[in-house]
Every structure is written in structure tokens, then in C-alpha cells.
Write a structure and sequence with these properties.
Layout (H helix, E strand, L loop, with lengths): L1 H11 L7 E7 L2 E7 L5 H5 L4 H16 L3 E6 L1
């Protein structure tokens, strides 16, 4: 899952070197934290949060194949 979020985020931003993705597991739930440069935050969130919602949907679909619960947090 971490690699999936990283590939999507790096394709969207101007500074792909500043994309940091961390993955932690807690209580059977996987938390993926995406950190980007402040100037790229708008590109990752999108108008009315559409891109962020799309990223979460793709990750959720991939996680459902493996019967996992995944939460994507964008910072």
C-alpha cells in the first residue's frame, strides 16, 4: 500500500523528492501518512478534496482485496 500511495503522490507533485510516506500498523488497522511540500499540498488535495478522495478510494480498493483496513492521512 505504501508504494501505491508514493507512486500516485510523486506523479502529482512538483517536488517528488519531498514526498514522504510512512506506514504503521495498529489494532489491525494500517495507517499510511503522506507528507508533501507545503507548495504541493493543493495538488494532492485537489479542488474540494477530489484528488485526496480518489487516492483514498484506490487504496481502499487495493486493501479490500487483502481484507485489510487502511486509513490514508495527508499532512
Amino acid at each position: 500500500m505504501k508504494e501505491l500511495v508514493e507512486v500516485i503522490a510523486k506523479a502529482l507533485v512538483e517536488n517528488p523528492d519531498e514526498v514522504v510516506v510512512t506506514e504503521t500498523e495498529k489494532d489491525g488497522e494500517t495507517l499510511i501518512e503522506l507528507k508533501v511540500a507545503p507548495s504541493d499540498m493543493g495538488k494532492v488535495i485537489g479542488k474540494q478534496g477530489r484528488i485526496a478522495k480518489a487516492i483514498r478510494s484506490v487504496v481502499k480498493a487495493a486493501a479490500s482485496k487483502e481484507d485489510k483496513k487502511v486509513v490514508v492521512d495527508i499532512q
